[in-house]
Design brief:
By secondary structure, this protein is mainly β. It has one domain: TolB, C-terminal domain (Neuraminidase, 6 Propeller), CATH 2.120.10.30. The chain is built from 1 helix and 27 strands. It has a 5-stranded antiparallel beta sheet with strand order 1-7-6-5-4, with no helix packed on it. A 5-stranded antiparallel beta sheet has the order 2-3-27-26-25, with no helix packed on it. Strands 16, 17, 18, 19 and 20 form a 5-stranded antiparallel beta sheet that branches. A hairpin with a 4-residue loop joins β17 and β18. Its EC number is 3.1.1.99. GO terms for molecular function: hydrolase activity. Belongs to the SMP-30/CGR1 family. Pfam families: SGL. InterPro entries: 6-blade_b-propeller_TolB-like (IPR011042), SGL (IPR013658), SMP-30 (IPR005511).
């Protein structure tokens, strides 16, 4: 399958913020912006719009935006070491080459759960594994049918953990020894020991709770100080949790539902945050729901790990 690239230039707006730098808004008009990841090799930001469904790429300096229309809902993306991207569509993992537009399947993940779709995903610290989550995608009340999966370079998927309603918030601590993930429906963040060489996790324990009014936990990133920074999707904020799971800082954003942060930019100190616009919400003229935000100088974090798809790369781990 070949996807066609569409080009545009988006508007960038500067707003006052409480952290000492003007907050930048890129007017990208997403339905459900998600999964941002900084691409240091190409100096750009990639992310997805789950419901459009689209893959997007932004050059923040020029405001040049590319969009690729996808064949079905998309839940996660990641970067591969060879320049391709990994995309989690409804029940399958795919590989996409932005140079050619070619989209090809990598793995069957969750064909046995037709009411689910894949949601969220991050490459593990060494680049050997891609962890993806799933969620109950049915309308109305949701069931705990979601799971965490580990996908390897050969396209083999292994279920690591079950019993989640909306799997989200995948991240690792600085040395890669602990895995974090959340269940957005329940407002809970969990942590577990992580064994990178084997691609497996230990029994999870509750790390933090963040209910509706505090901001249910959506996507997340860990900063250089070991804080877990979570998008409070129900409260228009970012919640920064310390190593003990205490919320030590709350950063308000000019949108109702931020979805995921990531560090990037030339120095790695800028925080990009995607957001969504719910179908039942009315968007006022100039409203910022569904736009992309950048908080320059917000902090620092490790670059996103790259998935190693070649045998020579995998053997060197």
């Amino acid at each position: 399958m070949i996807l066609n690239e569409r080009h545009e230039v988006v508007e960038r707006q500067l707003l006052e913020s409480g952290h000492g730098h003007p907050l930048q808004v890129y007017r990208v008009h997403n339905q459900v912006g998600e999964g941002p990841v900084w691409d240091a090799a190409r100096a750009c930001l990639w992310w997805i719009d789950v419901r459009a469904p689209e893959l997007l790429r932004l050059d923040p300096a020029s405001c040049a935006l590319s969009r690729w229309r996808l064949p079905e809902a998309v839940g996660a993306l990641a970067l591969a070491a060879d320049g391709r991207l990994l995309l989690a569509l409804r029940t399958q993992a795919w590989l996409f080459d932005p140079a050619t537009g070619k989209l090809e399947i990598l793995a069957e993940v969750e064909r046995d759960r037709p009411l689910n779709r894949l949601n969220e995903g991050k490459v593990s610290p060494s680049g050997r594994w891609w962890l993806v989550g799933s969620m109950d995608d049915s309308a109305g009340s949701k069931q705990a049918w979601g799971s965490l999966y580990r996908i390897d370079a050969a396209g083999q998927a292994l279920r690591l953990h079950s019993g989640l309603t909306i799997a989200n918030g995948i991240a690792w601590n600085a040395d890669g020894s602990r895995l974090f993930f959340s269940d957005s429906w329940r407002g809970q963040v969990w942590s577990a020991s992580w064994y990178e060489s084997e691609g497996r996790m230990g029994p999870p324990t509750l790390f933090a709770s963040s209910p509706e009014d505090s901001g249910r936990p959506d996507g997340a990133v860990v900063d250089a100080q070991g804080h877990y920074i979570s998008a409070g999707v129900s409260a228009g904020c970012l919640n920064r949790f310390d190593a003990m799971g205490r919320c030590v800082e709350k950063t308000a954003l000019p949108c109702r539902a931020p979805t995921m942060p990531c560090f990037g930019g030339a120095t790695g100190q800028d925080l990009f945050v995607t957001s969504l616009l719910r179908p039942q919400w009315s968007q006022a003229p100039g409203g910022l729901d569904g736009q992309l935000f950048c908080l320059p100088g917000f902090g620092n974090g490790k670059p996103a790990a790259l998935m190693k798809l070649q045998a020579s790369d995998i053997q060197s781990i």
